[in-house]
Target: Plasma membrane calcium-transporting ATPase 2 isoform 1
Amino acid sequence: EEEEKKDKKGVKKGDGLQLPATDGAAASNAADSANASLVNGKMQDGNVDASQSKAKQQDGAAAMEMQPLKSAEGGDADDRKKASMHKKEKSVLQGKLTKLAVQIGKAGLVMSAITVIILVLYFTVDTFVVNKKPWLPECTPVYVQYFVKFFIIGVTVLVVAVPEGLPLAVTISLAYSVKKMMKDNNLVRHLDACETMGNATAICSDKTGTLTTNRMTVVQAYVGDVHYKEIPDPSSINTKTMELLVNAIAINSAYTTKILPPEKEGALPRQVGNKTECGLLGFVLDLKQDYEPVRSQMPEEKLYKVYTFNSVRKSMSTVIKLPDESFRMYSKGASEIVLKKCCKILNGAGEPRVFRPRDRDEMVKKVIEPMACDGLRTICVAYRDFPSSPEPDWDNENDILNELTCICVVGIEDPVRPEVPEAIRKCQRAGITVRMVTGDNINTARAIAIKCGIIHPGEDFLCLEGKEFNRRIRNEKGEIEQERIDKIWPKLRVLARSSPTDKHTLVKGIIDSTHTEQRQVVAVTGDGTNDGPALKKADVGFAMGIAGTDVAKEASDIILTDDNFSSIVKAVMWGRNVYDSISKFLQFQLTVNVVAVIVAFTGACITQDSPLKAVQMLWVNLIMDTFASLALATEPPTETLLLRKPYGRNKPLISRTMMKNILGHAVYQLALIFTLLFVGEKMFQIDSGRNAPLHSPPSEHYTIIFNTFVMMQLFNEI
Model:
């Protein structure tokens, strides 16, 4: 307890951005308190409360952004326990099948026991009571043979009743689907994910790279007080501004990001590394400038300090030392965030002029919002000069990232993949809601969502920013409340400017929701390391094969090898196909079982001998269970599967239709077989096979019955 109090104090004093556990002791202590909280069965622990009280003291954006991450730390171990349990659980379908197989097994056992009892009783009563024969010692072997024969018939009934092909059919169907899904660019890591996908009711997708091509190109720019709707002519830009712009883009980006010549003639240049930076470098090349000389002049080891991009700052800065020993910092990032930190802007002559808050508001209205509404990502490029002495305090980020001079704002287009709108239409027709979760500006996100068909103008839906989303789902204490999420998620279609934690919160909120009668089955796509928690939490996690990090792939169930949203639709199709294949197989299998058991049972009761012999029944069992199950479990899917709504988790395996089919077919087959059994010898003018003595050779009569039975099964399958 004391340690926990100390921990709380430590957190309250700390800076807004620092996570509480900095030194080893505190870290282990945080872990201990997390474990302690688990032992008490409570999720809330010192860390969480403290971080909440801190968020109240300093209600900055940063605190809001970081806060949920801590509560995630507290709950980590709990989630881990759940995850290990979750992997051991059977999939929904396998659970249903196991239950069904057990029920059929019990029924079969009862039937076989009754068969044996009736046969034995009938024989003993007939022999020793009605015919009053004494039990002679020399007759014992014969009687024993009779009893053994009855027992064998009983066992046969049992063996036929149990559908041992069921688990096999599921596994084969899944394995077959997985192999075929490879061709559809789905690499399945967990077999049951494929079948879960058939029940999916919601997909939370990233925007960049999944719905769009992830080939960023600058299409608009605002430089020197002019808003250019296409790439400006290099001569129209002041030379000072141009030099600053080229330097700011070339130096303040990862040096691993490059634009290489195309592999084939006439193809587009290859973009390597961070795609947004590639777009900016492409802009430099479009202005007939080159970024390579700038980089070779200022190699990576000469960079003085680098503030890398993260989801809290939403910007990136690099500090260099100029020849006169003074410092210059280049910054780039989300325009609305970087512009807030600008106090000057370069005019047409390349001279800085004052940039007041009201100028900024006007710029947002006149430049940024129009760009965003065209579905462009707006990036602001800025710089700031520092004197050589006294050297600034580089760790005090709030002071450093301030008083910038804006060089330009560019609008980067990331075109929607051509096949995506069609794929999303298919999803919506199949009863799956597609939601877009992105780090982009809300206007950009909305524009792309409309292009994709996620939202249709005039519909009643929500587009929220991460901050607003957090505000709506938390109570006064800053805790997430399920009923608040329930008010939002059914209408939410776009979540913009979201942190990875928001994504996790949304997925968890939809899955835990009791708002709908069926529990929602959620699929999530992610590529970044920070998408790990959401991918793990979702029922099916899709990771990007090309853009995805290893962490994302590890956390996922299916990897999209071409990063394409339309491959998800293929996964849904295969998942539904698995379910339908199993249903077909079940219907076929149960018809065989019902008929065989009833024939054996009634035959035994009326003629003291099963019309279908033990070996024949076992042959039917082997052939029908294995080959037929293979044939029905490996049918390819069709587009029509996407025209129906997903089945719920609680939908019974044997639907009304299947029940009608099974019983109807059974009645037809039984009528035929019993007709052959009792009047067949008259129809074909052959000897009757009924009431044959022990060890008699097989009769023509019963062979006809067996052949008819097998033929009916084969045609039933087709």
Remarks:
- The chain is about 55% helix and 15% strand.
- Residues 217-413 form a domain with the Calcium-transporting ATPase, cytoplasmic domain N fold (CATH 3.40.1110.10).
- The longest helix spans residues 566-607.
